[in-house]
TrEMBL record:
Its EC number is 1.1.1.49. Catalyzes the rate-limiting step of the oxidative pentose-phosphate pathway, which represents a route for the dissimilation of carbohydrates besides glycolysis. Coiled coil: none annotated. It catalyses: D-glucose 6-phosphate + NADP(+) = 6-phospho-D-glucono-1,5-lactone + NADPH + H(+). It is an enzyme of class 1 (oxidoreductase). PROSITE patterns: G6P_DEHYDROGENASE (PS00069). This is Glucose-6-phosphate 1-dehydrogenase. Pathway: Carbohydrate degradation; pentose phosphate pathway; D-ribulose 5-phosphate from D-glucose 6-phosphate (oxidative stage): step 1/3.
């Protein structure tokens, strides 16, 4: 818990992200006592609205008792909202930022407690197009003269290598790397954070986590709804920029990287960069992209849009551990399920005397959501008189194992990390650059319409070709998959 004066300014306060994620995450930290008593929260945006109207907008998303989300304690919500004020202002002129700074400074100085430390956190819940101007103004008018200033920025960080590098340079000229927190909320998910411990603290995994034992890896993101309401944003970016280049690549890093020298944020991110540098250029023959039928009925999407809402592709990591193992990264909207999982399939058992091949291979699955779980598919004797092999599961479902534990929201963890000054779960500039280097050539080809966009039905598994890609790259499908 930090002490002193903390000001959190949410820029883009009237938007969806702020309402659904940022304010509720700050609220959760507040109710658990992670924020200092001297707390000021300002919502800033262009929209004309009063503080009361902002309160009304966000209060529906605040859940005071997370064990029972229907039960809200009005008192605690009321207390929290009393710390939240709204300011309307433009993004591109000085005036609003001068007012913002005055308000924050007044709060910091109101108790004439000049020895106490002050902290300022600016959360950019903004459209990327205004990042440069907002950053410039915050730098010019709103820096903390007596303590730290930190800025949380949200993806998209550009649209390709060049635009991302341009944005990085602009931000880099205004803030130091220590002040910038590039958020990828997947890094705040329980199972994603578990990867590091699971892989490197278990004797089980260390000797088998390599090309000699692993045949195939899949990192899969599925949503069972389309782009409703977000078509305008999504259509400009598409599924690779929205999900794969950031969220799934971060997961891939943690699945594939070498053991870091220590748990310091720099050592961890060094290893992520290294493994990304080993990713080979993407082979177009092993790319499937698709668009769900009806996507262009969205009025915010152009009728002629060739934006993929589905993509599956094989990445190859050219190093000693992974040479020859396909890493399929797959993401899609409007599919048959809502889930995110990592599926590691092992090679066949040599000298098969039980006819295991028929049953399916060993698999280790981490389900990120819904219902966090890790399970292993393994072959066991069917209980009974016969000596019969069957496939079963060693299952660690979190809702059974940790019944009483409320798993924190990703944003909640990451905002707390920012307040604590821990950058371990944030994306470093070089990491971002390498991730763009991998995808930019493919994205340019897709944007130019050079890769066939396959239609698929809403509620389906996506284009059939994606299952074929799995099979071609050596995935052996077992029952129920
Ligand atoms: C966001 C994407 O970053 O992640 C959305 O922009 C997507 O398109 C969302 O729906 C998924 O997040 P989660 O935490 O629900 O898996």
């Amino acid at each position: 818990v930090i002490t002193g004066y903390l000001s959190i300014v949410v820029l883009g306060a009237s938007g969806d992200l702020a309402k659904k994620k940022t304010f509720p995450a700050i609220f959760n930290l507040y109710t658990q006592g992670f924020l200092p008593d001297e707390l000021k929260i300002i919502g800033y945006s262009r929209s004309k609205m009063t503080t009361e109207e902002l309160h009304t907008t966000i209060r529906g998303y605040l859940k005071a008792d997370r064990q029972d989300p229907t039960k809200k304690s009005e008192d605690v919500i009321h207390q929290f909202l009393s710390k939240v004020t709204y300011m309307q202002g433009a993004y591109d002129t000085d005036e609003g930022y001068i007012r913002m700074n005055e308000e924050v400074s007044r709060f910091e100085l109101e108790k004439d407690d000049k020895d106490s430390s002050t902290h300022r956190l600016y959360y950019f819940a903004l459209p990327p197009s205004v990042y440069p101007e907002v950053s410039e103004k915050v730098r010019k008018h709103c820096m903390n003269p007596r303590g730290w200033t930190r800025v949380i920025v949200e993806k998209p960080f550009g649209k390709d290598l060049e635009s991302s590098e341009a944005l990085s340079s602009e931000l880099g000229a205004l803030f130091t790397e220590e002040q910038l927190y590039r958020i990828d909320h997947y890094l705040g998910k329980e199972m994603v954070q578990n990867l590091l411990i699971m892989r490197f603290a278990n004797r089980f995994f260390q000797p088998i986590w390599n090309r000699d034992n692993i045949a195939h890896v899949q990192i899969v993101f599925k949503e069972d709804f389309g782009t409703e309401g977000r078509g305008g944003y999504f259509d400009e970016y598409g599924i690779i920029r929205d999900i794969i280049q950031n969220h799934l690549v971060q997961v891939l890093c943690l699945v594939a990287m070498e053991k870091p020298v220590s748990l310091s944020p720099e050592h961890i991110r060094d290893e992520k960069v290294k493994v990304l540098q080993c990713v080979e250029p993407i082979n177009e023959e092993q790319v499937v992209i698709g668009q769900y039928e009806g996507y262009t009925d969205d009025p915010t999407v152009a009728k002629s849009s060739n934006t993929p809402t589905f993509a599956s592709l094989a990445l190859r990591i050219n190093n000693e551990r992974w040479d020859g193992v396909p890493f399929i990264v797959k993401a899609g909207k409007a599919l048959d399920a809502k889930k995110v999982e990592i599926r590691v399939q092992f090679r066949d058992t040599p000298g098969d005397i039980f006819n295991c091949k028929k049953l399916g291979r060993n698999e280790f699955v981490m389900r990120l959501q819904p219902k966090e779980a890790m399970y292993m598919k393994l072959t066991v004797k069917e209980p009974g008189l016969d000596m019969k092999a069957i496939q079963s599961e060693l299952d660690m479902s979190y809702n059974q194992r940790y019944e009483e534990v409320v798993i924190p929201e990703a944003y909640e963890r990451l905002i707390l990390d920012t307040i604590r000054g821990d950058q371990q779960h944030f994306v470093r500039r070089d990491e971002l650059r390498v991730a763009w280097e991998i995808f930019t050539p493919l994205l340019h080809r897709i944007d130019a319409g050079k890769i066939p966009l396959l239609p698929y039905k809403q509620g389906s598994r996506g284009p059939r070709e994606a299952d074929e890609l799995n099979a071609q790259t050596g995935y052996v499908r077992s029952e129920g998959y």
